[in-house]
Amino acid sequence: MFTSLRGLSGDLVEITVNGAPLQVVAGQSVWSAMALNGFTVTRKAAVSGQDRSAYCAMGVCFECLVEIDGLPNQQACLRRVSAGMVINTQHITEASEVYHAEL
Ligand code: FES
């Protein structure tokens, strides 16, 4: 569905998306790496559970939130891939438990 207009070249790094190991070009956005490999769902809507995906691809809409290395609410369109990064579709619902760090 998605292809790169520039062609992708450069050093490859391995990341994991929803448990799948992928070789992607270092420095591209998390969203780009996901979409080019068929992972177009970034999160599930908190109330309806519907699939959501990147919309603006420039940091404005927050539709692209994913979990990166265990940290939720990361904007896939703004974050750059790096070696060893673990990315998961975010599924936070009203029933999700919230943890607050001790200050
Ligand atoms: S796609 Fe809109 S903020 Fe990432």
How does this model look, in words?
The structure is a single chain. The protein has one helix at residues 30-36; strands at 12-17, 20-25, 43-44, 51-52, 65-68, 71-75, 86-89. It is mainly β. The chain has a single domain, classed as Ubiquitin-like (UB roll) (Roll). Helices cover 7% and strands 28% of the residues. The strands form 2 sheets. A 5-stranded mixed beta sheet has the order 2-1-7-5-6, with helices on one face. A two-stranded antiparallel sheet has the order 3-4. The mean pLDDT is 91. Bound molecules: FE2/S2 (inorganic) cluster. FE2/S2 (inorganic) cluster (FES) is lined by residues 54-57, 59-64, 75, 77.
Largest sheet, in brief, is: 5 strands, mixed
Question: Biggest sheet: strands side by side, in what order?
Answer: 2-1-7-5-6
Examine the secondary-structure arrangement and name the CATH architecture.
Roll
- Tally of distinct domains: 1
Topology of helices and strands:
Layout lengths: L11 E6 L2 E6 L4 H7 L6 E2 L6 E2 L12 E4 L2 E5 L10 E4 L14
Parallel strand pairs: 1-7
Antiparallel strand pairs: 1-2, 3-4, 5-6, 5-7
The chain binds FE2/S2 (inorganic) cluster (FES).
